[in-house]
Design brief:
CATH topology of the largest domain: Four Helix Bundle (Hemerythrin (Met), subunit A)
Pfam family, one: DksA_N
CATH architecture of the largest domain: Up-down Bundle
Helix content: over 70%
Largest sheet: none
Shape: elongated
Strand content: under 5%
CATH superfamily of the largest domain: DksA, coiled-coil domain
Number of helices: 4
GO molecular function, one term: zinc ion binding
Organism: Caldimicrobium thiodismutans
Keywords: Cytoplasm, Metal-binding, Zinc, Zinc-finger
Order of helices and strands: HHHH
Protein name: Conjugal transfer protein TraR
Length: 120
């Protein structure tokens, strides 16, 4: 892959990482603010429900963050954009949509079919 393209993907990955980290900080701030007692039980339940949803989202983002870090390492190693399953180049359109992708579209589809068969 050309250096300019690699730089473009690196910037995209860094931007996504920054957005995730910003969201994490907001969740932590909400958790700290959520220690106050609300007089209304409905307000308390709503706040707790929102916090649980936020924490669930942060868990998913943590997994995405690990994939982003892996993609950034691959850029540095010179292996970014290469399918881990078949060794083919991952299509640029796929990388624009999912810059942390490690599989080409064909291998990803095969993986999803296998997961569906296994019931995962």
């Amino acid at each position: 892959m050309e250096k300019e393209k690699l730089q473009q993907f690196k910037e995209l990955l860094l931007k996504r990482r920054e957005e995730i980290l910003r969201d994490v900080m907001e969740t932590l701030k909400e958790l700290e603010e959520g220690t106050e007692n609300l007089p209304d039980a409905v307000d308390q339940a709503t706040r707790e429900s929102n916090l649980v949803l936020g924490l669930r989202l942060r868990d998913r983002e943590q997994k995405l963050l690990k994939k982003i870090e892996k993609a950034l390492r691959k850029i540095e190693e010179g292996t970014y954009g290469v399918c881990e399953a078949c060794g083919a180049e991952i299509d640029e359109k796929r990388l624009l949509a999912r810059p942390e992708a490690t599989l080409c579209i064909d291998c990803k589809r095969a993986q999803e079919r296998m997961e569906k068969i296994k019931g995962e």
